[in-house]
Amino acid sequence: MMDSEYENETENGLKYTVLERGTGEFPKKGQTILMHYELWLGNGTMSSNYDYNNEEYIHDIYDSTYDENNPFHGPIKIIIGSTTPFDEIYTKGQSIRGLDEALMKMKVGEKRALLIPSYLGYGYEGASSFHTFHGYRIPPNQSMRCNIELVGIIDDQELNEKSIEDQPENIAYEG
């Protein structure tokens, strides 16, 4: 989707289009959820993918939890409100602010197309080391285009409060 094709925009600048409405509950900050994602990264993405025929690096990246060849084929678990600190080692369950904002306004079963501005993603510092594991790194100030599906909520918020207590910048979105 082009920037202008998204149907909605939040106060924080997150753009989205509902692709399929959900019928379940809304998740809350601190809950662990199951989700699928498809992520498209374009111009400027650093990549270790090399096209030997054309002798150039491939900078257009597609990553998906629907792909069984992906080490993180899904659905994956994330804890809403547990963000990945910039350029630190990814810890299981961490997320980014733009995903958290979208997920807390989705019902289980819902699918959305998102355009996450860089300040709700990896900001001026770029991607965490988590993405380096996949062979790409999101450069500074790059927005992220993705589709997400909220598959389910798998536990209560109380079980994860410890994991988000010491976050440097907890999210204050209302769900």
Features of this protein?
175 residues; mainly beta; Chitinase A, domain 3; 7-stranded antiparallel β-sheet; two-stranded antiparallel sheet; 3 helices; 11 strands; 10% helix; globular
Structure in words:
The chain is mainly beta. The chain has one domain: Chitinase A, domain 3. The chain has three helices and eleven strands. The strands form three sheets. Strands 1, 2, 3, 7, 8, 9 and 11 form a seven-stranded antiparallel β-sheet that branches. A hairpin with a 5-residue loop joins strand 1 and strand 2. The protein is globular and about 50 Å long.
* Text of the CATH class: Alpha Beta
Question: Any idea what the shape is?
Answer: globular
Average pLDDT figure: 75
Largest sheet: 7 strands, antiparallel
Oligomeric form: single chain
Taken in chain order, the helices and strands follow as EEEEEEEEHEHEEH
Regions with little confidence, pLDDT below 50 for 5+ residues: 157-175
Helical content stands at: under 10%
- Please state the second-level CATH architecture: Roll
Radius of gyration: 16 Å
The count of strands amounts to 11
How far apart, in Å, are the first and last alpha carbons? 26 Å
Overview in brief:
It is built from three helices and eleven strands. The protein is mostly beta strands and 175 residues long. It has one domain: Chitinase A, domain 3 (Roll), CATH 3.10.50.40.
Produce the secondary structure layout.
Blueprint: E1 8-9, E2 15-20, E3 32-41, E4 46-47, E5 50-51, E6 56-57, E7 61-64, E8 76-79, H1 97-103, E9 111-116, H2 129-133, E10 136-137, E11 144-153, H3 161-165
